[in-house]
Amino acid sequence: MNKLKCISILFFILIASCKENDFEDGKVIQKYVGKHVKTVLYQIDYGAFGSNITLCVFNKANNELLEEIGLRGEDELPKVDSIVNNKIFIHYNFSSEIEGVKNIPPDGVLLGEALIDRSSLKFEYVFTNVYFKSKQ
Predict the structure, then answer these.
(1) Per-residue confidence at 10, pLDDT binned at 50, 70, 90?
(2) DSSP string spanning the chain?
(3) Which residues contact 47 (CB under 8 A, 6 or more apart)?
(4) N or C: less crowded end of the chain, CB within 10 Å?
């Protein structure tokens, strides 16, 4: 019984430690506030191995962490564009031969558990690539 209590307390501390302004050694790269939820994008630097992005989705009313997913972040950084109901729209600016807005398959940018089992996600993520050549 004591072991179970100890594990429960440690688990609670771990969950509570993911706060909006303090996530691992991550640097906040964007905050987005929707009607009922808010998102924070953190860039986690792994030194020679590059960096990844962690997207945390919080309940706006009580700051409860609802979901956390890993995203690619080594070439371009993602940006949250909007949140509509349970859909979160995110774009990248990858270089491309074709200008315009194109959908990115989730497998191209998701990392970790979100990539392995998307059926367990609470939110639907829509990824696009927005690329326009600069006119000089």
Answers:
(1) very low
(2) -HHHHHHHHHHHHHHHT-BTTB-TT-EEEEEEE-SSEEEEEEEEE-GGG-EEEEEEEEETTT--EEEEEEEE-SSS--EEEEEETTEEEEEE----SS-EEEEE-GGGTEETHHHH-GGG-SSEEEEEEEE-PPP-
(3) none
(4) C
Of the candidates 92, 112, 116, which has an alpha carbon nearest to the alpha carbon of residue 104? Answer: 92
Token pair belonging to 94: 């990858």
What tens digit of pLDDT does each residue of 73-110 get?
877 899 999 999 999 999 998 887 777 888 888 988 99
CA separation for the pair 68, 71 (Å, rounded): 10
Residue 100 in contact with residue 131, Cβ under 8 Å?
yes
